[in-house]
Amino acid sequence: MERATTISPSLSQNYLLCPSRAFTTRLHSFSTTRSLSPSSSSSIKVQHSSSSVSSCSINGGTSLTRCNAVLSNSSSSTEVADIDWDNIGFGLKPTDYMYVMKCNLNGEFSEGELQRFGNIEVSPSAGVLNYGQGLFEGMKAYRKQDGKNILLFRPQENATRMRNGAERMCMPAPSVDQFVQAVKATVLANKRWVPPAGKGSLYIRPLLMGTGAVLGLAPAPEYTFLVYVSPVGNYFKEGVAPINLIVESEFHRATPGGTGGVKTIGNYAAVLKAQSIAKSKGYSDVLYLDCVYKRYLEEVSSCNIFIVKDNVISTPEIKGTILPGITRKSIIDVARTQGFKVEERDVTVDELLDADEVFCTGTAVVVSPVGSITHKGKRVSYGEGSFGPVSEKLYTVLTSLQMGLSEDNMNWTVNLS
Ligand code: COI
Fold first, then answer.
1. Active site residue 376
2. pLDDT at 324
3. Is 409 a residue whose pLDDT tops 90?
4. Distance set, CA 241 to CA 210, 311, 357, 365, 368 (Å)
5. Do 210 and 271 fall within a single domain?
6. Domain count of the chain?
7. What is the CA(118)–ligand 1 centre distance, in A?
8. This prediction's pTM
9. Are residues 386 and 337 in the same domain?
10. Which of 233, 265, 294 is the last residue in one of the domains?
11. CATH at residue 321
């Protein structure tokens, strides 16, 4: 059933043949055909093949993945890349494969394929480059302690959020099933880059972008859905130590009616200025206030915010100007199951003054304790240089579940092996 490798014409064959890799290995180390999600019509099959070409079937179609990089020793399913897993930080490490799926002019995403990770080629007139028509997601995969099984966390939530964002940005989006199958295929193809248990996670970055050429302001005529991955450690340089925030009083991240509530790329470009200024002054990040009253907490550049007072947990409610974080939502559910009262409401900046604990949540940051917040020159500190008791409890319950260290009573994890 093998046929010529299909490469999308607008994506260059500019593969990175792992010059920086510490070792080479058989790219798909699956000894038998694997079918992910047998109940789904979009089964993904990755077959061991002596000719180094694997087949990947999405939505009933079959395309061939490009597996022509240097192959050498065969590997077991528990093999991991030979890198310094104790110092991975949060920077891009090129991995083996990325997933690419194009959208035709009818707005339907069809056959997707795994390609060698590498640069892509787009028109200078692409909608994403000229008019910012782009969305992204952030997800993580953890290797379980058995070294073999890998857990995804609520991937359907990211798929749904991307679909909601796409609607706001006038873009077609992959179905939830297409999205989840693509993520699974990408993680499995890059399995050796999932850190050993306890050493971090594989960060998954799904992108949706207008790659068709457009000159006048209009939605792009074509779209690309792409998933790449990178092993990561802690997001903040502080590690799991508390971060120091400054309340931003000049710049705003979002406006009512704007795009602050969707994960569009422009939201992140817009915060770079304030973030750079804050970092140059020694702060970890910026806490934004609402742009109308300049009084209510919104979010930090890369994560949502929570405060704790007398064991009641409060967080700004979702009303279009903050990102509906999946970690935020999960922490709210975890907190309620742990018996805490959680309020989603307007939280004033003044409430920071007498909060017992403040913490941030996000896929990248997980649960990050806040050690201090500076507002109008006044600094309020929390805790003793570590997690407060409430945020520590929530962090432990959530991460134990994500890493497969505790039973998943919430049914949030998806196992890949
Ligand atoms: C994430 O938490 O995954 C995000 O998308 C935030 C990003 C700025 C790293």
1. no
2. 98
3. yes
4. 39, 21, 14, 11, 8
5. no
6. 2
7. 21
8. 0.84
9. yes
10. 233
11. 3.20.10.10
